[in-house]
Amino acid sequence: MSKIIIVSVRVANAHQPSTGGLAVAVERLLEQQEVAGVWLGWNGVCVEDQASIELNVEDRGYYRALTFPFTQDQYDQFYCGYANTCLWPAFHYRLDLMNFLPQAYQQYLQVNQQIAQYLDQLAEPDDLIWIQDYHLIPLAHFCRERGMRQKIGLFLHTPFPCVDILKAVPRHEHWLPMLHAYDQVGLQSKSDHSALLTAMKIVSSGGAASGVKQRETRFGVYPIGIDVDLVQSMAESDEADLDAEGPSPHEPAPKTVISVDRLDYTKGLPQRFRTFSALLERYPDVKEQASYVQIAPSSRSDIMCYQLMQEELESLAGQINGQHATLNWTPIVYMNRAFPAPSLMKLLRQAQVGFISPLRDGMNLVAMEYVAAQDPDDPGVLVLSTFTGAAQCLDSGYLSVNPYDIDDTAQTLHKALHMPLAERQARHQVLLDQLREQCLGTWYQTFLRDLTGQPQPPQPAPAPFTPIRAS
Question: Which of 12, 272, 397, 447 could make a disulfide contact with 23, Cβ separation 3.0–4.6 Å?
Answer without folding.
Answer: 12
